[in-house]
Design a protein that fits this description.
Elements (H helix, E strand, L loop, with lengths): L2 H6 L2 E3 L1 H5 L4 H7 L4 E4 L19 H10 L5 E4 L14 H7 L2 H17 L4 E2 L21 H16 L6 E5 L14 E2 L4 H16 L5 E4 L2 E2 L19 H11 L5 E4 L12 H11 L4 E2 L5 H10 L5 H24 L7 H15 L1 E5 L13 E8 L11 H12 L3 E5 L12 H8 L4 E7 L11 H6 L7 E5 L5 H5 L5 E4 L6 H11 L21
Parallel strand pairs: 1-2, 1-10, 2-3, 3-4, 5-7, 6-8, 7-9, 12-13, 12-14, 14-15, 15-16
Antiparallel strand pairs: 11-16
Length: 528
């Protein structure tokens, strides 16, 4: 390989990058990159019908593979097995069940999902911890021993399917509320505390021989406090964090991949220069870089700014991943993807994590005879369309209640005039029309003065004796935003027909909520 080809082997690009350079055939003639990113969500297309985002379909992935000169390392955040009908998000369930068996099966399903689409490498799991309960992410614990115990099993489950796993987001999210997609994040722990928490969890992951670590656009100034242009460097740009700490002190032997090189947390207006610096700092795989940066990295190597040993280290670590994957494929060391088993298992895992956080006035179980007319107040950010205005989770809840003979009405605005959000007399008039009010939440953080988050304000005005809070997302919400609510269900999973049915089963006393609280109500201490 030429020097340029060796450099391009460290590039993992999007379908947008490929199509803005002429499409797969022309792109790979000029840019023999080492990997591509695959996604399955809403795909953006240009006027010619070409995919112009990060998501595209399986046929296009196969076309990309056909035109690549090299065997690509294909990565993805998530996939589903063809034929899956119930792809419940259940990672949060693990924090409420603490089941190592469930954690392993979560990883096994993720590995099966990747294999079904021909993806070599999962950009999961996120092993972050929640020290700031208002952080945008939803971590499953702030206890490093819990994180290590469960995520080691997730990593093992993925890699037992012959798929490379990634732990992220180094040096760790969860201590500071800024979202690194939008601006530079920070890990604010003193370094000794960092080593006892985040450092400990990463070293535990390395015992599973996890193939990759993703760095992110977050600082750790307790370790790297050298200002650059007046700012502390994020791990993306920090040789101290990526090379000295991660590869050196912590002893990571696998490949380091950057977080996406398009995020607000690292954007300076010169993506080529940023890509060069990320590689120089110690990143082995560059995620979503501009391919033009290969020429700049080549020049930096030839000029002596970047030593050749940096490239050789990156290629050796990438080869380690490739060997792991190739060996698994050659030996067929994985299970055949099984959509039915995955659906059934995810339902079971979700059930194990559903938690009756509070039932302090004995409102539960509900009586279908007593509560015949229910108002479901939707407090989510789920997208709606004019032809079907009910958000997904609220609509599923309405349908399941009505299947049990309980009339249900979904409201998102509460009032005809949305600004009338805080008047007790209006709330009293509304709630008198219903036997029960269920506040339906599915959000990971609360934004100031946004709709529908203003409905959380409104929820406090409703009669506690006829109100139930149901939250699918962050288990850290209850103490901060609903401290006085006596009836609270934490689902710890995504809403689907299966999980919403189990919710109603639990509300009516036909199923036990098996999960345990992540946070204790009385003292706010996260359960160890």
């Amino acid at each position: 390989m030429t020097l340029r080809e060796k450099i391009l082997k460290t590039f993992n690009v999007t379908i947008r990058e490929i199509n803005t350079h002429g499409g797969p055939e022309k792109f790979f003639e000029k840019y023999p990159v080492g990997g591509v990113y695959y996604g399955e969500e809403a795909a953006l297309r240009d006027e010619a019908g070409r995919f112009m985002g990060t998501q595209y379909d399986l046929d296009t992935l196969n076309e990309i593979k056909k035109y690549s000169k090299n065997k690509l390392l294909v990565c993805a955040d998530n996939c589903i097995i063809r034929g899956q009908e119930n792809d419940v998000f259940v990672m949060r369930s693990l924090g409420a069940s603490l089941s190592e068996e469930d954690a392993y099966n979560v990883g096994k399903i993720m590995g099966m999902q990747m294999n079904d689409k021909g993806v070599d490498w999962s950009l999961e799991p996120s092993i972050d911890m929640c020290f700031d309960p208002l952080m945008y992410l939803t971590a499953i614990s702030d206890d490093p021993k819990v994180i290590a115990k469960l995520y080691r099993q997730v990593v093992r489950g993925i890699q037992d399917q012959g798929v490379c796993a990634t732990v992220k987001h180094f040096p760790g999210l969860g201590t500071y509320f800024v979202n690194m997609h939008i601006g530079p994040g920070s890990n604010i722990l003193p370094f000794d505390e960092w080593m006892e928490t985040y450092g400990y969890t990463y070293k535990e992951m390395f015992k599973e021989d996890v193939m990759a670590v993703m760095t992110t656009h977050t600082t750790l100034k307790s370790y790297d406090n050298e200002l650059c242009d007046g700012f502390y460097p994020t791990a993306t740009f920090s040789k101290k964090l990526t090379t000295d700490l991660l590869k050196g002190e912590l002893g990571f032997q696998g490949a380091v991949v950057t977080d996406a090189l398009i995020m607000g947390g690292m954007a300076t207006g010169d993506l080529v220069a940023e890509t060069v610096q990320a590689f120089k700092a110690g990143a082995d795989i560059l995620l979503w870089p501009p391919v033009e940066a290969a020429e700049a990295i080549e020049k930096a190597i030839l000029d002596g700014e970047i030593p050749m040993s940096r490239l050789e280290d990156a290629l050796a670590r990438i080869e380690r991943m490739e060997n792991f994957r190739n060996k698994a494929l050659e030996n067929k060391a994985y299970d055949e993807p099984d959509a039915k088993w995955a659906d059934t298992m995810k339902g079971e895992i979700a059930k194990h994590g559903m938690c009756q956080l509070r039932n302090e006035i004995g409102l539960l179980p509900l009586s279908a005879e007593k509560y015949k007319n229910v108002l479901v107040v939707d407090v989510t950010d789920e997208n709606c369309v004019v032809s079907d205005p009910d958000p997904v989770s609220a609509k599923l809840l309405k349908e399941e209640l009505e299947r049990r003979g309980i009339k249900a009405t979904v409201r998102r605005d509460i009032y005809d005039v949305p600004s009338r959000v805080c008047w007790q007399s209006d709330v009293d008039k509304l709630q008198d029309e219903y036997d029960l009010i269920i506040f339906n939440l599915n959000a990971s953080f609360v934004a100031q003065w946004s709709e529908p988050h203003m409905l959380i304000w409104n929820s406090h005005l409703f009669d506690k004796k006829k109100k139930v809070i149901v939250n699918y997302a962050s288990p850290y919400f209850a103490n901060e935003y609903f401290p006085e609510d006596p009836t609270f269900i934490e689902m710890n999973c995504s809403p689907t027909k299966t999980t919403v049915k189990m919710l109603v089963d639990g509300l009516l006393g036909e199923m036990e909520f098996e999960g345990k609280p992540v946070i204790d109500r009385k003292d706010g201490v996260i359960r160890k």
